Amino acid sequence: MPYALSHQVVDKLYQNHLYWSVHFHHEEGVIAEQLNLTVSLRGTRETRDNYQLFRLTGLLDAFSEPTFRKVLGGKIDEGPKHIILDLSQIDFVDSSGLGALVQLAKQAQTLSGTLQIVTNARVTQTVKLVRLEKFLSLQSNVEAALENIKSS
């Protein structure tokens, strides 16, 4: 009888080998990149003149966090320093995911940038549960995040 592996086990086994990306042009002056971070966490990256927009779906948990932090941390170092992280389609965030968000916010600040996080009710509730809403810049939509970047 074949064994079924949970996505967490698959992520753990392959987390260092799952990341790949495909570049494509989305609109004039915008480079979009498909990010397949792990089995349970996927997304896209759009690079504009003064910011990067990451749209993620899936789970930001202990199993996807190392790859998430490594890949996004590298993208912050190489691209525009203002980051919009759209987590509105994220199904779950645990304490490891929150820790990664804090580290990315600190990294952006160190590079004279900002991290704007677009949330949904689940993500907002988790952030507020551990009282990080004053440290992390939570936004209701991408447009609000853009306004925050323009005013910084």
UniProtKB/TrEMBL annotation:
What Gene Ontology molecular-function terms does this entry list? anti-sigma factor antagonist activity
The superkingdom listed in its UniProt entry is Bacteria
Q: Per the database record, which ranges form the STAS domain? A: 41-152
For this protein, the record's InterPro entries field holds:
Anti-sigma_ant, STAS_dom, STAS_dom_sf
Extract the SUPFAM superfamilies matched here: SpoIIaa-like
What Gene3D superfamilies does its record include?
STAS domain
Give the family, as the similarity comment puts it.
Answer: Belongs to the anti-sigma-factor antagonist family.
Spell out the protein name for this chain: Anti-sigma factor antagonist
Organism whose genome encodes this protein: Tolypothrix tenuis PCC 7101
